[in-house]
Every structure is written in structure tokens, then in C-alpha cells.
């Protein structure tokens, strides 16, 4: 398990789900964060919605529930509201990642000429953008005292195996090597029929 050490690297916990969506990944993520906070860790959260929408403001409420509006005006998935309540933190619009945000970021870079001489592809450009986004947001303070978090809990929405989440799955496969395996933990929530 993680040791509390202010000089250690950021720790990342990725929560995924299998078989069905809505299996409880958000509650598991919030609960893990609450347990870690009770042991003195500073925790932040990121929710990934692997949909092409830019934000949750245009999601179907029948499929995703109500939109949660953050203090900075970001329209995000309701899970971020659970994170804020469970963890007593103030999250930002960048704590919610969508496929649309990632693609828009990469396309904007391509249009500026950042990739001149390269063919822009899912691997490595989209997967690198996902990893860079997670690392950047994980270090942003979400507590009143403005201290940097120790642990970032990342919930990957949807279901493992869905085509829309494959670029995120690949990004995190690479990410464990980028941040070192001792700083990365995977929690998979699944339905076990009986």
C-alpha cells in the first residue's frame, strides 16, 4: 500500500468497470478516496467520460443523470459532485475528461503546427495527450489550504471492452510505465452473477 511521504511521487489509482456501466465505479472511487483522506492523504479525482461530447452539458440525462455544475462553471458528470461531497474538495472543469476535450486539444495543436512533419494518430498523439492531461490535473490543489494532492483517483467511465474507451485503456497501459508501477494501482469493479 502507499506510504504517506511528502517527498514521494504522485500516486494514481485507476478505477474501471466491467460487464455493465453504472456498476458503482463512482461510489467505489469516492469511498477509496474517503478512506485515504481519513489516513491523512490529500486526494484529488478525475472522471473520464469516453464520449465525443466536450462536456456533460449535452449528455442525455436519461443515460447519465443530471449535470453537475462546478464552482468554475464547468458542466460535468454527476460523479464529480459525489467526489466533492465525499472528499470535501473543490474540483475544476479539467477534472472531467471527455474524448471530445482530448481530440479538440490534439486538433488545436495540429492546427497550430505543433506536429509538423508527423502524421497525427491515436497512438501516440491521443494517448500522450490523455497522459499529459491526467498528470497536469493531478497536481492541481483541490483543498482549501492549496496543498498539492498525494493521490489522484481516476474513474474511467463506461465499460472495459467498449470501443470508445480503448484509447484511454491504451493510455493507462502506457501510463503505468511513465509514472512507474509502484505509483500506479488498478481497481476493476465487475458484476459477478450468481
From TrEMBL:
<dbReference type="InterPro" id="IPR004468">
    <property type="entry name" value="CTP_synthase"/>
</dbReference>
<dbReference type="GO" id="GO:0019856">
    <property type="term" value="P:pyrimidine nucleobase biosynthetic process"/>
</dbReference>
<dbReference type="GO" id="GO:0042802">
    <property type="term" value="F:identical protein binding"/>
</dbReference>
<feature type="domain" description="CTP synthase N-terminal">
    <location>
        <begin position="11"/>
        <end position="193"/>
    </location>
</feature>
<protein>
    <recommendedName>
        <fullName>CTP synthase N-terminal domain-containing protein</fullName>
    </recommendedName>
</protein>
<dbReference type="GO" id="GO:0003883">
    <property type="term" value="F:CTP synthase activity"/>
</dbReference>
<keyword id="KW-0812">Transmembrane</keyword>
<dbReference type="GO" id="GO:0006241">
    <property type="term" value="P:CTP biosynthetic process"/>
</dbReference>
<keyword id="KW-1133">Transmembrane helix</keyword>
<dbReference type="InterPro" id="IPR017456">
    <property type="entry name" value="CTP_synthase_N"/>
</dbReference>
<feature type="transmembrane region" description="Helical">
    <location>
        <begin position="12"/>
        <end position="36"/>
    </location>
</feature>
<dbReference type="GO" id="GO:0005737">
    <property type="term" value="C:cytoplasm"/>
</dbReference>
<dbReference type="Pfam" id="PF06418">
    <property type="entry name" value="CTP_synth_N"/>
</dbReference>
<keyword id="KW-0472">Membrane</keyword>
<dbReference type="InterPro" id="IPR027417">
    <property type="entry name" value="P-loop_NTPase"/>
</dbReference>
<dbReference type="GO" id="GO:0097268">
    <property type="term" value="C:cytoophidium"/>
</dbReference>
Amino acid at each position: 500500500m502507499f506510504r504517506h511521504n511528502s517527498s514521494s511521487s504522485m500516486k494514481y489509482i485507476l478505477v474501471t468497470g466491467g460487464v455493465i456501466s453504472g456498476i458503482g465505479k463512482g461510489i467505489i472511487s469516492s469511498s477509496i478516496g474517503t478512506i485515504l483522506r481519513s489516513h491523512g492523504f490529500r486526494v484529488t479525482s478525475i472522471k473520464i467520460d469516453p464520449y465525443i461530447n466536450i462536456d456533460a452539458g449535452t449528455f442525455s440525462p436519461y443515460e447519465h443523470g443530471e449535470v453537475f455544475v462546478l464552482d468554475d462553471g464547468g458542466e460535468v458528470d454527476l460523479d464529480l459532485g459525489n467526489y466533492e461531497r465525499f472528499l470535501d474538495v473543490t474540483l475544476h472543469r479539467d477534472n472531467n475528461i471527455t474524448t471530445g476535450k482530448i481530440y479538440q486539444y490534439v486538433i488545436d495543436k495540429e492546427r497550430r503546427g505543433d506536429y509538423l512533419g508527423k502524421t497525427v494518430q491515436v497512438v501516440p498523439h491521443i494517448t500522450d495527450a490523455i497522459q499529459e492531461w491526467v498528470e497536469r490535473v493531478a497536481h492541481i490543489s483541490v483543498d482549501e489550504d492549496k496543498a498539492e494532492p498525494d493521490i489522484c483517483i481516476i474513474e474511467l467511465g463506461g465499460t472495459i471492452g467498449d470501443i470508445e474507451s480503448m484509447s484511454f485503456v491504451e493510455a493507462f497501459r502506457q501510463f503505468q510505465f511513465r509514472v512507474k508501477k509502484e505509483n500506479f494501482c488498478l481497481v476493476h469493479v465487475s458484476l459477478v452473477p450468481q
